[in-house]
Amino acid sequence: MFFERIPGKEYPKEPESRMVIRFQDCDPLQHLNNAKYFDYYFNAREDQVAKLYEFNFGRLFRELGQSWVVYQHQIAYVRPAMVSEWVRITSRLIYFNQDTTVTEYYMTDDTRTQLKNVLWVTSKYIDVRQGERVIHPPTVMDYLETTCLPNVDFHNWNFNERIREIKGSLKAKG
Questions:
Q1: Which domain of life is it from (predicted)?
Q2: Beta strand pairing call for 16-20 and 86-96
Q3: Contacts of 130 (CB under 8 A, 6+ apart)
Q4: What is the pTM of this model?
Q5: Rg (Cα) of the chain, in Å, rounded?
């Protein structure tokens, strides 16, 4: 089983990870290399999903030969993440349908007051043996329904407006 919903259990919709920016991932200016944001985000999400939802990507791949592949990125570099800095990474599923997901990621400083980066990733669900798009099986749909952020009108969201909203929510918390 890739995911099994436990009746009555509350599943967090906006998991967060705390990570340190590694020297090896930075440029000569001590900023996190632009391409490395993807590694930090994808590693954080993989850990969050395994821990919080007990969703097993490896088992899904081995047993069904299916997985998601990235179709599109939209990314904004707001403030640099610096070498040895502790950061917070939040990820949340904001949209899905029968064969597509959109995950929103954002990175803040450790105090959650400064936005560093925002990323939207659109992924397509495929059968890796055939290299073709397929629909999400029922167990995967159950996982997506359980973990998706509710009340998101994704098709009417604007990426730049989302950046402003996230910034505003950080200031409101601080």
A1: Bacteria
A2: antiparallel
A3: none
A4: 0.94
A5: 17
